[in-house]
Amino acid sequence: MDANARDFNDLLDEMYLIRKGTIVLFNSFSTEALLRIGVASENKMSVRALGYLFSGHQMHHLNVIKEKYLKK
């Protein structure tokens, strides 16, 4: 679906729910689980590193919203 055709408030609600779900998921991981190494985009990466990556990606989306929709 074209994101531009979606209701802005629905998109914000979805972002909030995904963020909240990700936080709940990562809080459920043991220290051992967070240190496990896997491969993402052909690079070795820990589960913990993915958490930081997800956080940064969320910040990117919030900045896009601020720049495109809230400066008007």
Provide an overview of this structure.
This protein is mainly α. It has one domain (3-70). The protein has helices spanning 8-27, 31-34, 47-70, and strands at residues 37-40, 43-46. It has a two-stranded antiparallel ribbon with strand order 1-2. β1 (37-40) and β2 form a beta hairpin.
List keywords for this structure.
72 residues, mainly alpha, two-stranded antiparallel ribbon, 3 helices, 67% helix, elongated
Order of helices and strands: HHEEH
Helix/strand-derived category reads: mainly alpha
- Give Rg in angstroms: 15 Å
Helix proportion of residues, in percent?
Answer: 55-70%
Low-confidence stretches at least 5 residues in length (pLDDT < 50)? Answer: none
| Count of discrete alpha- or pi-helical segments spanning 4 or more residues | 3
Total DSSP E strands: 2
Strand content: 5-15%
**Terminus-to-terminus distance:** 25 Å
How would a crystallographer describe the biggest sheet? 2 strands, antiparallel
Provide the spatial order of strands within the biggest beta sheet: 1-2
Quick structural gist:
The chain is mainly alpha-helical and 72 residues long.
Topology:
Layout: H1 8-27, H2 31-34, E1 37-40, E2 43-46, H3 47-70
Antiparallel strand pairs: 1-2
Helix pairs in contact: 1-3
